[in-house]
């Protein structure tokens, strides 16, 4: 009898776990409303990127469309990317300079001026060890200063805590907390004293989401988006092991083809997917 009870309990736990995972993995209904962000004009867009490449991996095409439509786009990069190299001669300081130049070049390809890039410069892989209160205040101040119509950021999770590697996880939660702090005037009241009035971000677009509900057709700008991603030369191929910053035409062509194969497609269209909230 005791063995039967144990087996029943284990079956119950298995059922609950399976049901929970099914709920987590189930796709959200696709947004079908009239407000299409890729058709926006003269809006302010604020992008938060954990590293100097996450914005390009996830929303380069969408940003290209927004830039072409005359929207003002700002990008905040949390970490300097100063640890992502196996080159024995590379230093963290040099790699940070390389990654910043690559990010500026990628934004230029998309039509975003480097003056709109905020480089926080935290050490790669260490973002979750930064003082969370101070960083939330800094990010909330940036949101209040720019008063964006939309914020792009990693998805912190919908009904669950979404798995991320450390900088992605930290950036996701800090950004979500800062959006909340920017909304309420009594969060960090010193910001209001500095003239930074409370701002409720009307729309959030979360990338790296397992529950996307919004797809942007980026087919028209796919080559430009991939060129911006490929501008992160130090992130790909042999450059990770021995960096010289050089790319032969054949290497670039191979990289572009590989990146295009990895982009999401839907009925022959290239798409970027987000969780739109609300």
What would your notes on this structure say?
With 278 residues, this protein is α/β, with parallel strands linked by helices. It has a single domain, classed as LmbE-like (Rossmann fold), CATH 3.40.50.10320. The protein has helices spanning 2-25, 54-68, 92-110, 132-146, 166-183, 189-193, 222-230, 249-262; strands at 44-49, 72-79, 117-122, 150-154, 203-207, 214-217, 265-266, 269-277. Strands 1, 2, 3, 4, 5, 6, 7 and 8 form an eight-stranded mixed sheet that branches. α2 (54-68) crosses α7 and α3 packs antiparallel against α7 (222-230). The longest helix is centred in the first third of the chain and has 24 residues, at 2-25. The radius of gyration is 21 Å and the shape is globular.
What level of helicity do the residues show?
40-55%
CATH superfamily: LmbE-like
Number of strands: 8
| Main sheet record | 8 strands, mixed
Class of secondary structure makeup: alpha/beta
**Main CATH class:** Alpha Beta
Number of domain units: 1
- Alpha plus pi helix count: 8
Order of helices and strands: HEHEHEHEHHEEHHEE
Q: What fold name goes in the CATH topology slot?
A: Rossmann fold
Q: What's the CATH architecture name? A: 3-Layer(aba) Sandwich
As residue ranges, the low-confidence spans are 4-25
Concise summary:
The protein has 278 residues and is an alpha/beta fold.
Using brief descriptors, characterize the structure shown.
single chain, alpha/beta, Rossmann fold, eight-stranded mixed β-sheet, 278 residues, globular
